[in-house]
Amino acid sequence: MSPSTPVLPALLGRFGWHDLPFVRAWQNPTASEIIGAFAGGLVVVGAIAVAAVLTRHRWWGRLWSEWLTSLDHKKIGIMYVVLAGVMLSRALIEAVLMRMQQAVAIDAPGFLSPDHFGQLFSTHGSIMIFFMAMPFLTGLINYVVPLQIGARDMAFPWANSVALWLTIGGAGLMMASLVVGEFSTGGWSGYPPYTERDFSPGVGVDYWIWAVTLGSIGSTMAGINIACTIYKLRAPGLRFMRMQMFCWTSLCTAILMIFAMPPLTVATLLLALDRYADFHFFTNDLGGNMMNYANLFWLFGHPEVYILILPAFGVYSEVVSTFSSKDLYGYVSLVLATMAIAVLSFTVWVHHFFTMGQSANINAVFGIATMTIGVPTGVKIYDWIWTMFRGEVRFTVPMLYSIAFMMTFVLGGFTGIILAMPPLDYLVHNTLFLVAHFHNMLIPGLLYGMLAGYHYWFPKAFGFRLDERWGRRAFTCWVVGFYLAFFPLYVLGASGMARRTQAIFEPSFRPWLYVAGVGAFILLAALASLMIQLYVSIRDRAATMVEAGDPWDGRGLEWSVAAPPPEYNFAGLPHVDGRNPFYDDKHDAGRPDPYRSPTDYSDIEVPRGSMAGIAIGLGAAVAAFGLVWEMWWLTLVAAEVVVAALILRSFGRNQHRTIPAAEIAAEHEAWLARVRATRPIPRRLETQAINRGLAEVRA
Amino acid sequence: MSEPELAHAGLNLGPSAELTRDGAENAIFGFWIFLMSDAVIFALLFATYGTMVAGTAGGPTPASEFKLLPAFVETLLLLTSSATFGRASIAMKYAEPRRTLFGWLGATLGLGLTFLALEANDYATMVAHGAVPSRSGFLSAFYALTGLHGLHVAVACFWLVVMVGQVLAYGLDARVKINLLRLGLFWHLLDIVWIAIFSVVYLQGAIR
Amino acid sequence: MNDRRQELTSYAIGYTLSLALTVAAFAAVRWPSVGARATFGVVLVLGVIQMAVQFRCFLHVSLKRSSRHDLQLILFSTLIIALMVSGTLVILFNLRERMM
What we know:
The complex is a heterotrimer of chains A (699), B (208) and C (100). Chain A is an all-alpha fold and 699 residues long. Chain A has three domains: 50 residues, no CATH class; 487 residues, Cytochrome C Oxidase, Chain A; 110 residues, no CATH class. Chain A has a two-stranded antiparallel ribbon with strand order 1-2. The longest helix of chain A is centred in the N-terminal third of the chain and has 35 residues. Chain A is globular and about 75 Å long. The termini of chain A are far apart. The model of chain A has no long low-confidence stretch (mean pLDDT 95). Helix content of chain B is 78%, strand content 0%. Chain C is built from three helices and no strands. The longest helix of chain C has 32 residues. At the B-C interface, helix 2, helix 4 and helix 7 of B face helix 1, helix 2 and helix 3 of C.
């Protein structure tokens, strides 16, 4: 984009009319610009439509007081997942656009300009990692972990809200870049020197820097919160080696977040210093060294891979065990494997830049370390297979995702071993082979896991099950679409097609690109199926209510409470004496009835809502917006809002509300009465309308 | 609350049932985790400094820029402020007169601000003869590392003022105590980071 | 007030030791008696000792059973920091050697 003349530099910084995609499309109506303007328009129209619906139904007040300012870990978790869903939709559409461009731009210019194509792969990657995957897994952990460990909330409910809003603020910047200005063309990793001012003078890279920085700080806070919660708030008797697998993987993910997000923050902030204050960390001249950036970025980037994958491993452990009606096979080995992966993930980052020019010995060390990670991962796969062995396996949607994951992920792992050998890596470095590999890891290793978790815990969160038929359709599309879209890329990459290519000059690539394009459309159909499924499930919810709370004959404490759970989670804190406390209570004779009343009820304190989280998150996003556009006054004002909100919150008192014991007793006893009136069902009927959330116990 | 007997390093309050109920343990442990995360940020800036110290691009070098005396004085200021904060936390723990607490907090603040003034003076001297961050990779790394530490000290000073306000507004209630403890941990840790700075930056630069 | 005296002593010991270690480090550089590399080694060792002293005397981190969680946290952080810093230095020094 040509630099445009500033309109009101004192007020609007470097903004000029040309920064609006609508103006660009008007002046230069190419397909590329019109698509850009259409996307920007969609954001604006979407925002107006949402606001109109909220106003029409008079939902603003409820939305504000019950959701946006809520400190309840369950609501914060749900908001994270909603954010992930919105961002997934955008980034998936971008992926389809890129596949279409590559399919038509063979010895032809295609319909996207190189600059627009660059923005698409940069936003696609940045969103999928920072604003789809991270919120999705943080949301699931937020929702599930306190319930699984028998806690009433996270350790720091208010910090939880701040972390959520910082993430939303970062995502908001990504959306703003569609409407005002442009986005970075430097890829999701933003390598300098290309992203320095000399080569990328526009606002795009600044958008990227600040969006990622906000997301990174939010994730660090979330990690601290999750780790502290699991360390400190476990129910009486819940020793570490009795925790559910999902808690273990969440703990390891949280530890990775705590130590791996800071390198990202350092990398982006040093790049910001280079761009804003003419420092020389990563420049070509005056003693800068761009490889410092690669090193810092991948110190974050590799542990990040395991931040993404470990929670999915936890979900699969829960799902496979539940839907096989068997104890998890090799619990201890799974725990040790998770810890091993977490620690090893800090020892392999160099395999992302084998071709930098360091000595072969260093590459050999990191190549071997990389292959070592395959061992604990392999252990996990065997454990899951053995869990299914001779179990009462039901092929429900979460189970289907788990099985598809196991097969697909192993294939991706094999190509990972290929890439871990430096000499081979030199050959396919920066080609589509790599793109195929990491999608082959992350789609089964993250997305399938998150979707399995979404199907598995949705009835817990909302009190009704998701439609099984549309769930299977979506599953089929996700799997078929994945294989069609990404396996051709292995062939293309091995034949030397570079990644991030806007136009192709090798006709023999054509059939493979067509197949990949078809795959992308099937993936889009998968997303549409998910949306239809949500709609159908809400419409038909009367037939799938599971208020008794245990639709899958679950094993952990989260299934022992109503669906949806009360604000305080547990009427009386549970005592834990084994790995499957709820399951054992249900199925083992001689153990107490899981649906008994607690010995006595007591008052429970829950945090009141707070608008400080929203003020800090959005204030930080506005301050960042000011930095992007060099509207210094805006940055100053917004930063003051952030500081003021922090101080006011610290001066606040009376930030808790007490729910009286009588109210809890009434609510809980009423639920127990409804549970007693519910008909228990055997496992073979669990996907049918008769399943109201009470499991039949074999005599 | 699986291990109620657990007391945290820095959770230096003496027996207080009121505080345990308010989750002082979680608050302090969570803050420790944050501090470690922050320590990683500093560690990476040290590593970056290590890789860039040779990148002087023909400009000022560590040997030409770093003076031992100001660095020594700054070290003493920060070390002493760490000790005075420790004294303040003892005053809080044993419920000594409010005057004593404010006296030691005030001394800490004064030492912190003096440290900042001296550091600003160092910067001014360097800038005056052309040693600005945009001159070379080495100077970029130097300003980022010491600047981030200085920024932390400034934030800590500001936080201290806010805490004095809270003591005045609420007395030493549970939350004020917890936040003073957290500030204390923060302050001590900044002194520990400074040990690394004077060893790796100033002393290394002055070795001939 | 026995506890109080003990704690005051702890801070006093920490302060005195830190002071001595600081003076020793600066003196080792101001009046060098060994080579440059050895001097830097001495400075680093003195710095690490001073950090340990401050963790012990100012932050009250100890080997007692009661503060194991903190100790684990600090040791794990030290491991990660050591991995990151040493890895960064080895890799980038190696790169510089090969580029120069």
